[in-house]
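Rotation project, supervised by the postdoc (A.L.). Task for the rotation student: set up a whole-complex structure prediction and record inputs and outputs verbatim in this book. Inputs entered:
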Amino acid sequence: MSTEALTHVHPSRRAVLKAAALATVAAPLFGARAAFAAEEYVIGIASGQTGGLAPFDQPSLAGFRFAIDEINAGGGFAGKYPAKLIIKETRSDTAQTVQAVQELVQDGVQFVITPADGDPTMAAGQITQPAGIPTMTFAGTAPILTSVGDFVFGSYPADNQQMLVLATYALELGYKRAYLLKSPDAAYTLKGPEYFAEVFKAGGGEIVGEGMFTMNQPDFSAEVTKIKGLSPAPDVIMTCAWEPDLPAFLKQLRAAGVTIPVMGADVCDTPTVRALGEIVEGLVHTSGGFAEPGDKHDAFNKAFKAATGVEPDTNYYVNAYDMAYMIDNAIRAAGSTDPKAVRDALANLENVPGAMSAYTFKGTDRMPLRSVALARIENGQKVLIERITPDAAALPKP
Amino acid sequence: MAGWLRPRELRGYERAASTAIALCAGAAVAAVLAILLFGANGERIVTLAAIYVVCAAGLMTFSGNTGIVSFGHAGFVGIGAYTSAILSMPAGMQKTVLPLLPPALAGWELPLPGALAAAAVAGGAVGFLTGIPIARLKGSAGSIASLGLLIIVYTVLSGARDFTRGNQTFYGVPRATTAELAVAVALAAIVVAAFFKESRTGLFARAQRDNEPAAVAVGIQPVAARLAAWTLSAAMCAVGGALLAHFLGAFSPRTFYFDLTFNLVAMVIFGGMSGVTGAVAGVVGITAILEVLRQFETGLAIGPITTPPILGIGSLGLGLGILAMLMLRPRGLTGGREAMVPLPRIVRGATVEPATAMVRAAVGLSVEALSKRYAGIVAVDGVTCRIEGARITGLIGPNGAGKTTLVNLITGHAAPTSGSIRLGDEPIGGAAPVAIARRGIARTFQNIRVFDSLSVLDNVAVAALATGASRRQAYAIAARELDNLDLGRLADESAGALAYGPRRRVEIARALAMRPSILMLDEPAAGMNPAETEDLRARLAVIAAARGVAVLLIDHDLPFVMGLSHDVLVLDRGRIIATGRPEEIQADPKVVEAYIGAPLGAVPIG
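Outputs recorded:
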C-alpha cells in the first residue's frame, strides 16, 4: 500500500475508524460482548477471592490457573483450543455471583466455574442450566448442588461419599456406639454427621447421642458433660466441626478426662489442625487426597511450589488442577467444544486418572466418584491409613 | 414564578409529592440511561439497585424517622424472601426442595404479584409483633434490640428446616424479577416512604426523635409512632426480600444476615439517613462505586495502558468510601435534605378557617392538699390552690421550693403521694403525661424544646394533630397561631435555625395549638433582654384575656411576674406561704424573708 493511500483516508472511512477506535476502548466499560478468537475455549470463573469463601476459592483459582498455563503450553484443550479465562470476583456474595454469572453467560463463555459453596453454585446453576452451559463448582461438596440440573457438576468428593468411607472404617474398627456432634449453622456440619449416622446404623452400629453446637461459640462444657455422663460410653465421637470450634471442643473434651477417639471430616486436613498437639493425637479424618512421595499429587505440589513459590498446603490447589484436566478430557472425548457434547462427555468420564485421585462421573448424579483418603494424625503429622473409592450404590441419599 | 410554589414554600403532603416526583423522575431516567448505555449488564445493575432501593426506603422509614439505627431489617428481608419463595414455588419442585412442608403451605404456586403481597403481609405481621417490645426502646437500646432480632430471625430460619431447608441452600425459586418490575416496586416504595414521612404518624415519629419530652407534652405517644414506623418498614423490607429471592433463585439464611445488614446500613448512612433522597442516593452512589471498581478487578484496557488485575478492589473501595463519608460528611451525601421540584400553586387549595374555638373548655385547675414525698424528702407539702380561666396566676418561690415538682405533678410526670388535682371536675392526679396533654393542659419548658428539624409550621401543626384535629384543621390552626405571634413569615423555616426569641414564640404557639384550658409557662422570659421580655409580657396578657385560658406562670424575674399576674402563689419548702394580688405579696414580710435578705424595692405594678 502506498503512503498516499494510507494518509488520504476517505472522510467517511475516517469517521468509521474513529468510531471503531472509541468502541474498542469503551467496550470493556460497556460490557459489550468480547471478541474471541475463533478457536479459543472460554471459561468464565465466578469466584469469591475475598470474603468467607476466600480460603477455598483463592487456592482453587491458583491451582486452576497453573493447570491452564500447562494446558496452553501444550496448545490448549485437546491440543488445539487455547484456553481463555474470564474471572469475576463475587466477594462471597450470592447476589454478586448471580450478576457475575449472568455477565459471563452474556459474554458467551463455554464453561462456567462457580465458588466452593452450595448457595452461589445453585444460584448460578439456575442461570447456566437453561442456557445450556456446563458448570462446575470449585470444591463445593454438598451433594444436592447438582440437583439444579444436568449441566451442573461437582469436582471434589461429596460429603456423603466421604462419610460413607468414614463410617465404614469406623465399623471395621469394631466401633458399635457413636456420638454425633452437629451444628445447624451450616449444611456441612449438619448433614455430614447425618450421612455418617445413616451408614453407621445400616452397618449395625448405634447412635447413642447427638449434640448441637453453635458455630463460633466456643463453650462446649454442656456437650462435654453430656458425653461424660453417657453410660456405657460411646466408642467414637464424630463431628464435621472446623476451626475454631474443633480445637475448642477437643481441648475441653480432653481436659475433662474423656479419652474417647474422635473422627472428623476433610476440614481437619490443614496444617493448623495438625499443629494442635496432644489433643489431636489419634484423630482420624477423611480427605479428598493424600500426597505420597513420588505420586502425581506430590509431583503437582513440587511443580506448583517451584512455579509460584507458594506451598500448596490444602487439597484445593490440586483439586482445581484436576478440574482443568476434567474439562480437557471431556473436550477430547467429545471431539468438539459444543456445550451439549462437552456436558455429555463429562458426564460419561470413567476412571480417569487425576493428580489428587482418579474420578468417575458415569453413573453418578454428577458428583464425581473419587477415592477418599483416611488419615490419622500422629505426632503432628498426617499418616495415611488407606484410600477407598466408595461404592456408588451404598451412598446415603442427599 | 407566579403560578408555582417554590420547594422551600411547600408544606406537608406537598413536600411528599414534590420529593416523590423528583426522585421517581430521576430514578426512572437513571434506569433508562443505564439500560441504554450498558445493555443487558445495565438491566442487571438496575434490577439489583432497584431491589436495594426498596429495602433502603424501608429501613429509612424506620431509622430515618425515629433516629434509631436498626440492624434487624435484613431479617425482614429474609422473612419476605422465604415467604414469597415458599408460596410461589412450583408444586413439582416443592416435593424435592421442601418434602416436609405442611400441606397448608404447599402448592400455592402464587404468581409474583401475589407472592409480593404475601411477603408484605408476613413482614408486616412479624414487624408488628416484634415492634411491640422494640418500640418501647430508645436510642442505642433500640439498635441493640434490633441486632438481637436479626440473630433471632436467622436462628429461626435456620431451625425451621421443614419450611426453609435450614442452612441448606433453598433453591428452585422462579427467577421472575424483571428490571421493569423491580423499578416499578422501587418507585412505589419511594412514594410510600415520602408520604409516610409527612403523614401524621411520620410527623409524630420525627417530633419524638427530635425531642421526646416535648413530643409527650403536646400529646404524642412516642411508642405508638415508633411502632407504626417499624411495622411499615418491616413490610417494605419484606417486599424487597421477595424481589431479591426471585432475583437470586437460590439462597440460605446467611444471605439475610450480617453482610446484607452491613450493605443496607452502609447505603443508608452513605446517602443520609433521615431522608428518602438519602436512601436512594446511598444505593445509587454505592452501586456506582462498586460497578466502576469491578471494571478494574480483571484489569482494564484504557487506550495503551492496561491496569493490573486487583481482585478485591470492590470490597476495598466500598470500605474506603464509607470511611471517607463518615469522616467528611457524617450526615451523609444529602445530609437528610430532600430533592424537590416546584409544584403548581393550585395543589395548595383554599385556606380553611379553623372551625374549632381557641380553647376547648374554660375550666380551671384545682389542687387540694397535694403532697409529694420522695423517700424522706417532702417536695410538695399539702398545697391547695386554684388557677382560674382568663387569669394569669404567677407561681414564685426560692430555688428548691418545689415549683418544678408541682408542675411535674400537674403534667403527670410525677404521681401524687396524697391529695388531688382536678381539671374542672375531672380528677387527673396520676394520669399519664400524654393523657393530660390531650385533656387540655399545655406547657412550655424552661430550656426551649422545639422540634429542630421540623419547620415552624410543622412544629405547631403537630401539636394540633396530636390533640385531635384533622389534617386540614391542624394546619389551619397552626397558621392562625403563627399569625397571632407574628411568626407567619417564618412558617417554612426550620425551627432549629431560629433565634432565641422566635423559638420561644414557636413553643408558645405550639402550646396554644393544643387548644388548652390550662397553659403552664416555665420561666418563659429566661435569657431574654428587657425589650424581648416586655414584648412577651404584652403578648401573654392578650392571650389570657382573649382566649379565656388559665395561665400558670413560673418565673424568677419578679418584676415580670408581678407585672403580668392577676394572682400570685408563693411556694417555700413545699408549702404555700402566701397567695394574693401582686401588691399584697410584695408587702408580705414572710415572702421577703423567704427570699434571702434583699427587699423587693419599688416595682411597677402593671
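Student's summary: The longest helix of chain A spans residues 54-73.
Supervisor addendum: Residues 1-7, 19-34 of chain A have pLDDT under 50 and may be disordered.
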